Amino acid sequence: MRLSGSRHLGSNPSPAASLRQVQCPRPIYKFQTQTEALTMNYPTVLKTGALKEVFGKIKATGTPPAFTTKHLKSLGFTSSNDVAILSALRFIGLIDSAGKPTERYKNYKGKDGPQILAGSIKNGYSELFGLYPDAEQKDEESLMHFFATNTDVSESSRKVMVSTFRTLCSMADFKLAVPPSAKLEAEIGKESPELRQHVNPSSSK
């Protein structure tokens, strides 16, 4: 029996209709509990050489209104793999969720850049430094163990997480690390409550 203007209650929706009902999750850090925070995906930058070059460009060029894919390309980083560098910058608090450079980004450009970066790394990787206070000195096996315990990604991805972390650490001075300020926390969390919770995990307790 063919019905007009309505669908029979016992009929199955068409494949197209089913697809329209599917909602893709937004690619953001979504922390609702401490457990969820511990299972987050850490930055994975395949081209660590490009990551170091970008930090050199940050020092040598002006501060953009927004550090986006477009800005990244203007600096000469046009590979699709280079986009992951943005997630690394966001993860350690140099740019906020909208790509706007934070106060910490601006401070990194100064003479205390390596110390600023060290503080940013310790803040972004707070769970790792909570386990290993000297995480920047840990060997690959220890770091791999941490990422294996705190993420659900493949071994190859964990290796990239380790290399990304080590590359960031190679540019930082942890002897005089500068911790994030309250202003930085406000800037990072302004656009995203999830990121604000990550910057200050104690606020969720």
Write the layout of secondary structure elements.
Elements: H1 15-21, H2 34-38, H3 48-60, H4 69-74, H5 84-91, H6 103-108, H7 113-124, H8 126-131, H9 140-150, H10 155-170, H11 182-190, H12 193-199
Helix pairs in contact: 3-10, 9-10, 11-12
How much of the sequence lies in strands comes to: under 5%
The helix tally amounts to: 12
- DSSP strand count: 0
Q: Give the CA-CA distance, first to last residue.
A: 59 Å
Name the helix and strand elements from N-terminus to C-terminus, one letter apiece.
HHHHHHHHHHHH
Largest sheet: none
Helix content: 40-55%
Q: Which outline best applies?
A: globular
Radius of gyration: 21 Å
- Which structural class matches the secondary elements? mainly alpha
Mean pLDDT: 79
**Would you identify the regions where 5 or more consecutive residues have pLDDT less than 50?**
1-10, 15-39, 186-205
